[in-house]
Amino acid sequence: MDAGGALKREVRALWGGGTGLSLLAVAVAWGLLVGTRMIYPIVLPSLQESFDLSLTVAGLLVTVLWLGGAIGQLPGGMLADRYDERALMATSTFVVAAALVVVVVAPSAAVLFAATAVWGLGHSLYPIARITLLSNLYADRLGSALGVTMATGDVGQTVLPPIGAVLTVAIAWQAGLGFVIPLLVVLGLFILAIVPKTSSGGGGAGQSLEGVRTVAAELRAPSMGFITLILFLYIFIWQSFTAFYPTYLITVKELPAATASVLFGFFFAVGVVVKPIAGGAYDRVGIRGSLVGVLAAPVAGFVLLPFVDSLWGLAVLTAFVSTMLGSGAITQSYLAESFTEELRGTGLGVIRTLTATVGAAGPVAFGVIGDYGYFDEGYWALAAIMAVVILLTLRMPTTSAIQT
């Protein structure tokens, strides 16, 4: 089969039917939101200096950002089941923009932590509303649509951190983070103007709470138990790695900050290619084969990372590790298809909040490891955890978890 022709047909299918502009708006805003969040690891050394933070406390700051993003996903999912997803996504961009204003003018570490928490909570309104909206617009191509939006997210994570690094070096860390504020406001307005008004459910609060109880009961299903544990371990690995990889490259590998930021951006650049392929693979072969396919290379990457010092070698290993970014398009598609339309937002909220809340311990745990001088051993531990994820995937039932 002609790969180029297949790609063109897929693009036409995603763009056609009047849904293309909505996909563009959702994807670009998502790229800006997640790209902004990945500027934090780039400016973390500057924050350590400005606020006199240890690696452990700096890791806690990143944990607060991720924890806010985790805790808010359950109410965010419940809101997505009841209200207009378009309004939720626009509100997310506006709240994040306001929180970043406070972050860049923070006079103390306490204010910095509080504003970071609000930033995470604002961010949490977007992910599930995005998934439920796309599940309505692309019922037959959800994996591909999510793969495209996640790849666009990686474009933001590729481009924005190096820009933030340049502005941090040339001006100050506040400029390296604050330049995205007006862009967030513009994208929020763009969503309101382009994305159709839609809601996946419309049930009341009682129905949403009943949905939480239903989903909690369904966690006992073998397939749901497997995917929940897999997601938790993956999030723990991903957040631990992304929080301190630039710091590791600068302090241990002795790379210039600008080079470290480009290498960090390269990690997400590979994801731009991997995520649509992973989403398409899920649509064709299901979760087991597609998930193992994207998680095998990171094991080797984590194991070899402490032994490689050359820039080109680090670039190759970064590419190895970055294939794990394809797992999002797979696991989120599987979860979205496991729930009925009425429970989709609430179900995603329960699972994502549960796994991301526990997984948010990763950055602070890795910060403690770094403070004690065991960065290399930390990456070997991540390799071992990823191997466990692969074994769990191979044992995972392939049937849908929820049939209500």
UniProtKB/TrEMBL annotation:
UniProt topology in membrane: Multi-pass membrane protein
Keyword flag Cell membrane: yes
MF annotations from Gene Ontology: transmembrane transporter activity
Start and end residues of each Major facilitator superfamily (MFS) profile domain: 22-401
Signal peptide (UniProt feature, chain positions): none
GO cellular component: plasma membrane
Subcellular location: Cell membrane
Statement: the UniProt record of this protein carries the keyword Transit peptide: no
InterPro entries on file: MFS, MFS_dom, MFS_Efflux_Transporters, MFS_trans_sf
Domain of life per record: Archaea
Pfam families linked to this entry: MFS_1
Ranges annotated as spanning the membrane: 12-33, 53-74, 94-119, 171-195, 226-245, 257-278, 285-305, 311-335, 347-366, 378-394
Main location: membrane
Keywords: Cell membrane, Membrane, Transmembrane, Transmembrane helix
Protein name per UniProt: MFS transporter
Organism: Natrarchaeobius chitinivorans
Lineage: Archaea, Methanobacteriati, Methanobacteriota, Stenosarchaea group, Halobacteria
